[in-house]
Amino acid sequence: MMIFIQSLDYQLWNIITNGPEIPTEIFDGKRVLKLNNEYNDHDYKLLQFNAKDKHVLFCALSPSEFNGVSSLDAAKEILVHDYELFTMLENENISSMYAPFNDIINALKGLGKVYTNHELVSKILRWLPKSWEPK
């Protein structure tokens, strides 16, 4: 995913890793949000990059995943949300479940969000369906 987004525009990947840049200005020594009517061309370009970023990530999601994350503001939040809600399907085996899980973990690692092995194993054990309890 990282290479795909960087190939579209490297600035898009920077926005995912660093968060969106919202147009601000210094007023009385404090940083405050600009009003819409105060935006310049650079501000609009920053806002457009964040919108493109969200669009690329939304297009990669299934309709049910899209409904769950469409209200999130930053691209990084989308990936964390995917990680938190990831589950193993009843008819799925561990090998087929691990590939999409690993994709999410690698994307988050690229964003600076690193989980310990203990956290990852605990998460996987919680995701196992009830049919795995006797095992």
Question: Layout of helices and strands, plus pairs?
Answer:
Elements: H1 2-8, H2 10-18, E1 24-27, E2 30-33, H3 41-59, H4 63-69, H5 75-85, H6 94-110, H7 117-127
Antiparallel strand pairs: 1-2
Task: For the structure shown, list the relevant keywords.
mainly alpha, 135 residues, 2 domains
Characterize this entry briefly.
This protein has seven helices and two strands; from the N terminus they run ααββααααα. The chain is mainly alpha-helical and 135 residues long. The chain folds into two domains: 60 residues, no CATH class; 65 residues.
Could you explain the architecture of this structure?
This is UBN2 domain-containing protein. It comes from Cephalotus follicularis. It holds the Pfam family Retrotran_gag_2. The protein has 135 residues and is mainly α. It has two domains: 1-60, no CATH class; 70-134. Helix content is 60%, strand content 6%. It contains seven helices and two strands. It has helices spanning 2-8, 10-18, 41-59, 63-69, 75-85, 94-110, 117-127, and strands spanning 24-27, 30-33. Strands 1-2 form a two-stranded antiparallel sheet. A hairpin with a 2-residue loop joins strand 1 and strand 2 (30-33). Helix 2 (10-18) crosses helix 3 and helix 5 (75-85) packs antiparallel against helix 6.
What portion of the residues fall into strands of 2 or more residues? 5-15%
Q: Strand sequence of the main sheet, in spatial order?
A: 1-2
Derived structural class: mainly alpha
Number of strands: 2
| Annotation field: number of helices | 7
The outline comes out as elongated
Residues in helices, as a percent range: 55-70%
Secondary-structure element series: HHEEHHHHH
